[in-house]
Specification:
The protein is an alpha/beta fold. The strands form two sheets. Strands 3-2-1-4-5-6-7 form a seven-stranded parallel beta sheet, sandwiched between helices. A six-stranded parallel beta sheet has the order 10-9-8-11-12-13, sandwiched between helices.
């Protein structure tokens, strides 16, 4: 079988990391299959896919298409712009779109895929509009449609031309089914992690050095949020929680990551978050590491991992990664993230957006090493049971084969 994957980004967000795990799982289970990747940006996704033996082609989005997104209309968690402004941006993108689709269609014809697997909303549409003949297209949906006023209408409009969809949680699957209707078959396939890479023991990194901070005193508890700077990831909640902790708690916080997306309006800038730290008077207790190439090493450098999304989280890959690394985690009880944990057993749940509750959970874990260890051990067992990447091939290969057989 020949499978072509289409991806919107070249950087490594959660959807891109999940795509790499899919390709690695398929490669191991079906070594005779030919796998292709078309990415709309260069970046580490391209390099890592090539290392897996995937044939890669970069077809860069024109800037007008790359910068157009629902965030510009205020969803999800974006800064609202006027409809005329959005319409002008959409018109400029529409002018550039036919040329891009011609290039994409020509590349897909050269690859001759049996199945096209799209990753990212823009590629869901581009895959439908550029597929050769009746080649089946599978949408891999990692985010909710309801908060996206433009994309939900477009995907509902073209759902009848999609052969099937994969969602990364039951929560997202329900959302997609409600928007696209009963004609679109949606399968839930949880994301996975490499359990050999994400394990409790292994290399760590010096978070203080990366942050440009002096070494933390002995006994300091390191608490980190590993996420892109998307506004709904809750960086402001984490910072307010840290500000509520007494200095005697000996906690140092780390923001690991940075801005990722090209579309306007949906993410914090580094300068904005630094101003917030200054205003809260916690500059001596918060470090900004930037992106860390090896997230497993970053997670092993932390005593506590926090997940602070303020809106429903489609899945929460960092939660699965932290659990695989045997780390105690505090997780927002929202969306698909709530499906991943058992509160008080393998993680602590927290109310989304509640900085005081988050501060209380951090303080509880910071002062109770036994609780951290117990949660970490249970978390690793959960990860082994639910997030082993070998499962991806077991679940996706039958979907691909059924679609090829239906053509």
């Amino acid at each position: 079988m020949r499978v072509a994957y289409l991806n919107t980004l070249g950087q490594l967000g959660g959807a891109e990391t999940s795509l790499l795990e899919i390709m690695a799982s398929i490669r191991a289970a079906q070594p005779s299959w030919q796998l292709f990747l078309i990415a709309a940006q260069p970046g580490p996704l391209v390099e890592r896919a090539e290392a897996l033996g995937v044939t890669v082609r970069v077809l860069a989005f024109p800037t007008t298409i790359a910068k157009l997104g629902d965030a510009a209309m205020g969803g999800p968690a974006g800064r609202q712009v006027t409809i005329p402004t959005f319409a002008r941006k959409a018109l400029r993108a529409a002018v550039a779109l036919p040329s891009y689709l011609r290039l994409l269609r020509r590349e897909l014809r050269r690859m001759q895929p049996d199945v096209i697997h799209t990753n990212g909303f823009k590629m869901h549409l581009c895959g439908i509009w550029s597929r050769p003949g009746t080649t089946p297209v599978v949408w891999h949906i990692h985010d909710y449609l309801k908060p996206r006023p433009v994309m939900r209408r477009l995907l509902r409009m073209f759902a009848s031309r999609c052969a099937g969809a994969v969602a990364n949680s039951d929560s997202v699957a329900r959302d997609v089914a409600q928007i696209c209707g009963p004609g679109l078959t949606v399968s839930r396939v949880y994301n996975a992690v490499d359990l050999q890479k994400f394990r409790p023991s292994g290399p760590a990194v010096d978070l203080d050095r990366l942050s440009g901070m002096p070494p933390a005193p002995d006994g300091t508890i390191r608490v980190g949020l590993l996420a892109t700077f998307a506004r709904w990831k809750g960086h402001q909640v984490f910072l307010r929680a840290l500000a509520q902790l007494p200095e005697a708690a000996r906690v140092r916080g780390y923001l690991i990551g940075g801005p990722l997306y090209q579309s306007d309006g949906g993410q914090h800038s580094l300068e904005e978050l630094r101003r917030m730290v200054t205003d809260l008077e916690i500059s001596d207790r918060v470090g900004f590491t930037g992106f860390i190439e090896e997230p497993a090493a970053a997670l092993r450098s932390l005593d506590i991992v926090v997940h602070t999304s303020t809106e429903p989280e489609p899945f929460g890959l960092v939660i699965a990664e932290a659990m695989a690394c045997g780390r105690a985690a505090v997780v927002s009880r929202t969306g698909g993230a709530e499906e991943l944990i058992s509160d008080q057993h393998d993680a602590l749940g927290s109310t989304p957006g509640d900085a005081a509750a988050l501060a209380q959970s951090i303080r509880q874990l910071a002062t109770d090493g036994g609780l951290r260890a117990r949660l970490g051990r249970a978390a690793r067992l959960t990860a082994e049971r639910r997030f082993d990447r070998r499962r991806l091939a077991w679940e996706l290969v039958p979907i691909y084969e059924s679609l090829r057989g239906a053509c």
